[in-house]
Amino acid sequence: MYEANNNNLAHKYSEQADRYKQEQIELEKIARELEKKVDENNERASQCMEYHHLFAISVTFFQVSIALSAIATLIQRKPLWWLGLATGMFGLFYFVKGFMFFSLI
Question: Would you say residue 26 has pLDDT above 60?
């Protein structure tokens, strides 16, 4: 009687083990596909971060340019205003550079 129960349990657990192995194979296949998508998205995100840095530099130059121009206006110094204008040109350069690289995608 105990042998029959043990054989039934052994058969039952053997079937479950086979089913779990099949499920594991299917899940591994799905996981590999998802890992591939993650790698592609990580590559795309790193490209976008490069553009982000160019635009961040541009914004920084624009902010410095605005500050210099405001100070030049307050203290009425024309050379400082020209420096603010030149700084704004650097900001414009990085802004255009960001869009140029962005269009290469």
Answer: yes
